[in-house]
Design goal:
By secondary structure, the chain is an alpha/beta fold. 38% of the residues lie in helices and 11% in strands. Helix 7 crosses helix 8. The structure holds magnesium ion.
Length: 248
């Protein structure tokens, strides 16, 4: 692990007016993979063809992009699946809710303490996720986190993550001020690039498939191995710390 850097050009990580949190791999994990499995089941059922998510980038993607990529990979033509997109998502929402008792959602380390810390500082908290809205809120309900978030940006109308972030940022500023400072928190290079496309800095956390090195290479302003590493009690300027800034 490398040492802590605190360049004067960066504000404190906890000084923003509002935060946009990714869900999967950032706030929570779900080893049951109910959402991903239901995706393939529902697309296959509605389209009458086998649709697989094998080989598809799921982490950091959006539900709309996952469907597009899965259909492409499975050889389903655009003109066949696009008219049925709403039917697929409607079924996906129903099936995930039906299987909610099978989900094994757990919180990532430090999540509740981090949200407590930011709330105590007066920050407005929202989610910005590639999930469909109904599924995103379900996960937060099951995780016991729903009440902590004032607003959410979801992928129902946005296959492109940067556009979902833009929408979430717009909502965040409605809840704060038009000139409010925002920060995205996510676990993939796609969260980082979508934040930067909107001139928003990013805290990247290496709690899913991407390493600290991957996330530093993506250009995140802050990279941590766990959200717990951001908390003041764990924030030590010693060489053992794993809070890093790529702007150092
Ligand atoms: Mg994620």
């Amino acid at each position: 692990m490398t040492s802590v850097f605190a360049p004067a050009t960066l504000p404190a990580w906890d000084s923003f007016d509002a935060y946009l949190f990714d869900i999967d791999g950032t706030l929570t994990r779900d080893p049951s993979r109910i959402h991903v499995q239901a995706f393939a089941d529902c697309a296959s059922h509605v389209l009458g063809r086998t649709v697989t998510l094998k080989g598809i980038t799921v982490h950091g993607s959006t539900d709309a992009a996952i469907l597009r990529d899965a259909c492409s990979m499975s050889g389903v033509e655009d003109e066949h699946w696009r008219p049925l997109e709403a039917a697929i998502f409607s079924r996906l929402i129903s099936v995930v809710h039906e299987r909610r008792h099978l989900m094994q959602i757990t919180l990532m380390p430090g999540v509740e303490q981090l949200l407590d810390h930011l709330a105590a500082r007066g920050a407005v908290l929202g989610v910005a996720t590639g999930n469909l809205e109904s599924i995103g809120w379900l996960k937060l309900d099951l995780a016991g986190l729903h009440h902590r978030f004032t607003f959410g940006g979801f992928s129902d109308r946005f296959a492109v993550r940067a556009e979902m972030i833009a929408h979430a940022a717009h909502i965040a500023r409605r809840h704060t001020a038009s000139g409010a400072s925002l920060c995205v928190v996510g676990d993939t290079p796609f969260d980082v690039s979508a934040a930067h496309a909107n001139n928003i800095p990013a805290i990247a956390v290496a709690t899913s498939i991407y390493s600290v090195e991957d996330l530093r290479a993506a250009g995140a302003e802050w990279v941590v191995s766990s959200l717990a590493d951001l908390l003041p009690a764990n924030h030590s300027p010693s060489p053992a710390s794993n809070l890093q800034s790529t702007l150092a």
